[in-house]
Structure formats: C-alpha cells, structure tokens
Amino acid sequence: MATKKSSSQKLKSVTPSGKKDESFFALVYDVVRQVPKGRVTSYGAIAACLGTKLSARMVGWAMNGCGNIKPKVPAHRVVNRLGMLSGKHHFKPPSKMEELLKKEGIKVKNDQIVGFDKLFWDPVKEIGF
DNA sequence: CGCCTGACGAAAC
DNA sequence: GGTTTCGCCAGGC
C-alpha cells in the first residue's frame, strides 16, 4: 500500500463537504468498523459519538442491515451497556456472535462479555467526535 | 400524512 | 433492590 494509514484517521462524522446523505446509519457502521479487534463498545457510546446519545436505540436499529452492508460491520463487537450480547439474536446464526468474540480473544459467558469493563472501547475517546 | 416499531438507557415505582 | 415503563429519534408501512 502506498499510504500507510495516516496515523490516526479520524473519520469524525462523514462530512467531506456537506455530503451527509449517508444518514447516521452509515455513521454507525463507520464507528463500529473502527473498533479494534479484541475490543467492544456499547450502543450508547456510539450514539454519544454521533451526537444521538439521546437515543441509543437508533444505533442498534441502524444495525438492522448489519448483514446487508457493504463492508462487513463487526456488529458482534457492539453490545449493550450491560456488556450483554443483546444483538446476538439478530445474527444469521445467533451463536456466530459469541464465536467471533471468542476468536478475537473476548470471553463470553452466559451471553455476557467477560471483562467488558476492560474491553470497553469508547469511540468518543478514540475518535473524539 | 400518520402510527408503529425498534438490537437501549435511565428513571420511576 | 428488582421489575416496569417511558423517553429519544428516525425509518417503514
């Protein structure tokens, strides 16, 4: 690759120049895609990062097409504030979510992320909004 | 054009 | 202290 990842690539909302047509749906996908492997985040954190913290529901709702989006969105890294795999039931194979998380080094016990507190990845802190 | 739903979150009871 | 309900915002029918 010619360019080597320009250091911190802050996507910060998709506003190239007034082209926010992507709806915040794409924004959610972008943020989730930036989640490092072995890390997890919560819907509310993403929502807050986008500015819609008033409605974390929209974030999860945006994932409605998680299997319909172009680049694969690691929706399995997104869980609710409790660290529970709330969206696992929406995956093609519900167990796929735990499998992916376990593969990344994340332990899942009883549909809940073990050490969610340390694995928690805050987009607002990393991206800075 | 209007009602309902929706993978959360926090407050209220 | 656990359970329930409302609230947010936006899209789908």
Count of extended strands = 4
| Tally of helical runs | 6
**What separation lies between the terminal Cα atoms?**
27 Å
Which stretches are low in confidence, meaning pLDDT under 50 for 5 or more residues running?
5-19
* Gross geometry: globular
Helix content: 25-40%
The side-by-side strand order for the widest beta sheet comes to 1-2
Structure classification: mainly alpha
Bin the strand percentage.
5-15%
What does this 3D model show about the protein?
The protein has 129 residues and is mainly α. The protein is 34% helix and 6% strand. The strands form two sheets. It has a two-stranded parallel sheet. Helix 1 crosses helix 2 (43-50) and helix 2 (43-50) crosses helix 3. The two termini are 27 Å apart. The structure holds a DNA duplex (13 and 13 nucleotides).
Identify the notable features of this structure and list them briefly.
129 residues; mainly alpha; 34% helix; DNA-binding
Short description:
The chain has 129 residues and is mainly α. The chain is built from six helices and four strands.
Map the helices and strands.
Elements: H1 23-33, E1 41-42, H2 43-50, H3 56-62, E2 78-79, H4 94-103, E3 108-109, E4 112-113, H5 116-119, H6 123-126
Parallel strand pairs: 1-2
Antiparallel strand pairs: 3-4
The protein binds a DNA duplex (13 and 13 nucleotides) through α1, α2, α3 and β2.
